[in-house]
Every structure is written in structure tokens, then in C-alpha cells.
Design the sequence.
């Protein structure tokens, strides 16, 4: 999965934390790629897989300083580095598997090139999910500045809405303790939910 929820497996957690720290440093692309190669080494994967995964950072657009500075946006910015780090660890593992499973007449370079084709699709999905979370965080902070910590959840009630979004509609949530499904607008890639004034109903958890 390109942008998984929750925490990475224990075996990868230290590597993810190290990579997240590198990404948060705001280094140049070349310096970040070199540091990422070093950070990925504990995974004990093929050197070509580690190089390819680290070099994916060159394809990620530079982050712009967010206009929104509310607590939800700041929390999302910190979390984004961990999501991105976890994505890079997963990418390294997928590329490593492609190298190990290459055909008899296929070179390592060919296996890496082939693995990078779907990887670019996963990367686009990952970046789109992060953009959704960024927009949802900014919208939540704007509403929280007006109504406070408790907000309402509004979703489009049609056949395209997911069961989670249907369930959340008309319920309240706390900005300081967001529900496990995420914020309105970031539940899934095409989420149309948005935060509104509190309904005065039961809290989502």
C-alpha cells in the first residue's frame, strides 16, 4: 500500500523514524538521497533496491511552506514525513522482491526498471493522499478557529459515498483527538466530506 495508515511493523520502525528525520531536515535532494541510502541499509536489501528507493525522493516535488499554521496542519506536517518514510521502506522491499524474482535472462538493472513502473503509480497515489490530508487539515483548522475543538462531520449522502463517510455524517469529532478514520476530506482518495459547526451529537472515535 502506498500510504498505509497506522504504524509500520516493529522491524521497520527504527528505519522509518530515521528516514522521517532526514525528510524533516529540509536537505537538498542530492543530500537527502545520499542520507536515505545510508538509513535504508539496516533493511539488508539488495544495494540496487536501496539506491532505487532512495532516488525516488528525487521525483517527489519540494515541499512548500504551508500557509496554514494551525495545530491540525502542524500535526499533519509531522505525520507526512512518517507516511513518506514508510512509503520509501515499502518501495525498497518491493524493488528488492522484483530483483530476487527476476527472470533467468533479466539483469538487475532491467528488474529495477520494471519495478519502478508500478512504483511511480504508487508514488502518485501517495502524494495525492498527502495532498488530501493537507487540505483536510487546513479546512479543519479554519473551522476550529471559529467553533473550537468540537466540530461536526458533513458528508455527501449519495451512492458514491463510502459506508464510513455515511456513518460519520451528522456526528461530532474532536480536533485534538481526531477519529481513527481520519479527518473529513481525507478518509479516502475521493472523499468529499468536510468539517462543519458542531451538530451536538455523539462523538466519533
Sequence:
Amino acid at each position: 500500500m502506498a500510504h498505509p495508515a497506522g504504524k509500520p511493523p516493529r522491524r521497520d520502525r527504527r528505519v522509518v523514524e530515521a528516514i522521517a528525520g532526514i525528510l524533516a531536515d529540509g536537505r537538498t535532494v542530492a543530500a537527502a538521497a545520499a542520507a536515505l541510502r545510508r538509513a535504508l541499509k539496516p533493511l539488508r536489501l539488495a544495494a540496487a533496491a536501496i539506491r532505487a528507493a532512495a532516488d525516488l525522493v528525487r521525483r517527489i516535488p519540494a515541499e512548500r511552506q504551508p500557509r496554514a499554521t494551525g495545530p491540525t496542519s502542524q500535526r499533519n506536517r509531522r505525520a507526512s514525513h512518517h507516511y513518506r518514510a514508510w512509503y520509501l521502506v515499502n518501495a525498497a522491499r518491493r524493488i528488492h522482491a522484483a530483483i530476487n524474482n527476476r527472470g533467468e535472462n533479466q539483469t538487475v538493472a532491467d528488474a529495477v526498471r520494471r519495478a519502478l513502473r508500478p512504483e511511480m503509480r504508487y508514488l502518485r497515489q501517495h502524494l495525492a493522499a498527502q495532498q488530501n490530508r493537507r487540505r483536510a487539515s487546513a479546512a479543519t483548522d479554519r473551522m476550529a478557529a471559529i467553533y473550537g475543538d468540537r466540530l461536526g462531520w458533513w458528508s455527501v449522502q449519495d451512492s458514491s459515498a463510502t459506508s464510513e463517510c455515511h456513518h460519520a455524517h451528522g456526528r461530532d469529532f474532536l480536533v485534538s483527538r481526531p477519529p481513527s478514520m481520519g479527518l473529513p476530506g481525507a478518509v479516502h482518495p475521493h472523499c468529499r466530506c468536510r468539517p462543519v459547526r458542531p451538530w451536538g451529537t455523539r462523538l466519533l472515535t
Observations:
- Residues 10-143 form one domain.
